[in-house]
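Q: I'm writing a short explainer about Sodium-dependent bicarbonate transport family permease for a general audience and would like to include a description of its predicted shape. Could you first generate the structure from this sequence?
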Amino acid sequence: MELLIQNLVSPVVLAFLLGIIARMVRSDLEIPSAIYQGLSIYLLLAIGLKGGVALSQTPPAELVGPVLLTLALGVLTPFSAFILLRKLGKLGRIDAAATAAHYGSVSAVTFVAAIEAVKHSDIPAAGYLPALVAVLEVPGIIVGLLLARQSQSGGIKSALHEVLTGKSIFLMLGGLIIGTVCGAEKVSTIAPFFIDPFKGVLFLFLLELGIVAASRFRDLAQAGWRLVLTGCLLPTLHGTIATTAATYIGMSTGSAAVFGAMVASASYIAAPAAVRIALPKASPGIYLTMALGVTFPFNLAIGIPLFLKLAQLTS
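A: Of course. Here's the predicted structure. Afterward I'll give you a sentence or two in plain language.
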């Protein structure tokens, strides 16, 4: 309970709640789209840079196990999501596959929130974790699209191009490469812009996400209790498996907890862009609402503290 309270009473989580309250009381608060796009670019590039610096300081042998585990879960989680969405959520094949692609991918903001949570608990996490975010983002989307069994020629090919060249992967991988090549000493020259203000930018980004999530609460009510329940069960299932497996292969307590939160999250940047192209008949009101309106706040409030506690128990 104490861990849950500590995680909830943090600036980034409270910024998210502030955004929700602003929408509920019909405040005229609004972050311009151009600024929101700028905040997204900053966060993705900064995450990649910090991960690249950490990679430059990590022996390659330490990455083999975590990368293989990430790829395996990136392929398996869309299948479990697809089955639950079909059986419990009662979704059709197209909507279930589209939503499964989101749950197979990863939310960079949830990852950052998990990093901040373990820091707050004084439990160190490995620096190579941002590289795993980039590895996890793609396979789940591909599997989700394949599950839809699309007959339109070029649909999956276009979606793959969108995923690999989209800003989330492009900026994160770009930052990762720059950080790896330059190392800590050279990256320190841009640290006053890309490292130090990171939490402040994340605060503004979460404020905007709170506004967006609250604007979809009506869609959530229309989706019904089955989808809300599925949106809570999926992160619990995926995060528990991921945290336990990460501990089993020797990842540290903090790393296993963050890894569990990564696998438990659902994408709302890369996956929607790909799904819009490959599965135009899928309903955004379902996959966006579940990823952003249910699973994202669930992980902030319950998932991250749960995976941290599980990592502490299994380590």
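A: For your explainer, you could say: Residues 62 and 225 are 43 Å apart (CA to CA).
Q: Perfect, that's easy to follow.
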